[in-house]
Specification:
Structural class: alpha+beta
Radius of gyration: 22 Å
Number of helices: 11
Largest sheet: 7 strands, antiparallel
CATH superfamily of the largest domain: Hsp33 domain
Strand content: 25-35%
CATH topology of the largest domain: Hsp33 domain
């Protein structure tokens, strides 16, 4: 990142909700991104009206996706997805570069009710056994890249850490937090809102041998006949990030800049132009009409209602599109 793009911490109007803030700590060879999500997140979760345990899980997935997706250097997509055998069997968060986010969750209501009654609503209990997948799609005429790891961890934060250790092989620390905010609007009416926050910090020194980790394949610490200890800079950075309280990630009175300053001011933290993200779905009537046009006449007849209409609801944004069966019948 060019130094001239750096901004001073505390500039008026800087960052704020729904803006991903890139940062660099030169004294520790660390780069990363941090964010607090407010209206964008609340819009996605509010339209689906998920039960609180499901909403929390999806909020974490959205936060992780936003932090990683805003680092894409091309016009493409990052899709973060969990598939498991728990009550919440599917989470999908989709980031279309440079700024659009959509997401949804699928769950078994009866199984979720039983989990709530039994008090087994920790993330690993709701997700069950399965996989976490990161898919990068650069568009037509390109091959998708997909990294998959098992749901091996008690939280999505821990599971994402497994992915970075095994797939990216870049020393990475992830922090995620979600909160429900109860307050009153300008008219004094009580309201409920969702907030989330997160940080991804990565150790990126100029000397590549300093990036070896003991838990990576080939990173058992043996190099040229002597032991490679965990780098002091990275150990310090990890320790700092681990001090973050979940409330600090989501509290609008703390803010992303103030949190970064608390963590790294002694090491010279530098922040860059924030990237705003938006609650925007890529569905359209034209796209769905094209999908329906690929069905056979028998399938269309079976899908249409008594009035000869076909209703299709987008799982991401809950928008319903209606078509006359005659519109999509094969010619």
């Amino acid at each position: 990142m060019m130094a001239e793009n750096a901004l001073k911490l505390g500039e008026p109007g800087f960052a704020g909700d729904d803006h991903v803030l890139p940062f660099q700590v030169e004294g520790l060879d660390v780069r990363g991104r941090a964010v607090q999500l407010g209206p964008m997140l609340d819009g996605i979760l509010g339209r689906h009206d998920y039960p609180a345990p499901v909403a929390r899980l999806l909020a974490e997935a959205i936060t992780l996706t936003v932090l990683l997706g805003t680092s894409l250097k091309f016009e493409g997509k990052l899709i973060v997805q969990t598939k498991g055998d728990g009550p919440v069997d599917l989470l999908v968060a989709d980031f279309a570069a440079p700024e659009n986010v959509r997401a949804y969750a699928r769950f078994d209501q009866a199984a979720l009710d039983a989990a709530i009654a039994a008090g087994t609503t920790e993330p690993h209990e709701l997700l069950g056994k399965g996989i976490l997948a990161f898919t990068i799609d650069q568009g037509a005429h390109t091959q998708r890249y997909q990294g998959i790891v098992p749901l091996d961890g008690h939280t999505l934060e821990e599971i994402a850490g497994v992915y970075f250790r095994q797939s990216e092989q870049i020393p990475t620390k992830v922090r995620l937090g979600v909160a429900e905010l109860y307050d009153r609007d300008a008219a004094g009416k009580a309201r409920h809102r969702w907030r989330a926050g997160g940080m991804v910090a990565q150790f990126l020194p100029q000397a590549p041998e300093r990036m070896r980790q003991a838990d990576l394949p080939g990173g058992d610490g043996e190099e040229a006949g002597h032991k490679i200890a965990d780098d002091d800079n990275w150990a310090e950075a990890k320790a700092m990030v681990e001090t973050i309280d979940a409330d600090e990630l989501t509290d609008p009175n703390v803010g992303t800049e103030r949190l970064l300053f608390r963590l790294f001011h002694e090491r010279g933290v530098r922040v860059y132009q924030p990237q705003q993200v938006f609650d925007r779905c890529s569905c359209s009537r034209e796209k769905l009409k094209g999908v329906l046009a690929g069905l056979s006449a028998e399938e269309i007849a079976h899908t249409a209602d008594d009035k000869g209409e076909i209703a299709v609801t987008c799982e991401f944004c809950s928008t319903t599109y209606r078509f006359e069966a005659a519109e999509v019948l094969p010619q």
